[in-house]
Structure formats: structure tokens, C-alpha cells
Amino acid sequence: MTQPKPLNNLVLVDRASNPNTSEGGIVLPSTDEPQQSYGTVLDVGDKVTAPVKTGDTVLFSRYSGTEVSFQGKLFVLMREEELLATV
After folding, report:
1. Considering the entire predicted model, what is its pTM?
2. Domain boundary assignment for the chain
3. Predicted confidence band at 2 (pLDDT cuts at 50, 70, 90)?
4. How far apart are CA 42 and CA 23, in angstroms?
5. Coiled-coil stretches, from where to where (predicted)?
6. Which CATH homologous superfamily contains domain 10-17+34-86?
7. Euclidean distance between CA atoms 31 and 13, whole angstroms
8. Is 38 within 8 Å of 59 (Cβ atoms)?
9. Rounded to whole angstroms, how far apart are CA atoms 28 and 69?
């Protein structure tokens, strides 16, 4: 599957999904769940100076970036300044 290539100082992130079941096996409803504030870096733009690379897990604010749907898959495209930390 192809994915968008971020330009300049943008980073393409695959946001982590919320779990569907609890540790005890109870199915959790998907309504009113806040989205996860971390994800995996899929690609970085050519002008990114932050020490992140493809495959890194990064933390970011809940409302950071722009959600982009491409070929049926949701991505988050954000500026490198919006990244808070690597894990």
C-alpha cells in the first residue's frame, strides 16, 4: 500500500488505535473514547530537523496535526514542532 509523502517539516504518523476489549475480555464501546495521543512515524519530510525517523513511536497532543484519509486508511500529518517526545 502506498502512503502520502510528507513535504518540508511535516511528519506522517499512524495514530495508535484504541483497544476493543479490556484486559478482562469485556468488549468496550467505541463511542465517547478519546483518541490516542501517540503513534508510529511512517515517514518524515526532507526539512525535518527533529531526531525522529521512520518506525519511531512519538507522543503528541490530542488535537495536533491534520487527519488525512488516503486509500481508506487514516493518517495524521503534523509539523515536527507538534511532536512532544519519542518513546
Report:
1. 0.81
2. 10-17+34-86
3. confident
4. 28
5. none
6. GroES chaperonin (2.30.33.40)
7. 23
8. yes
9. 25
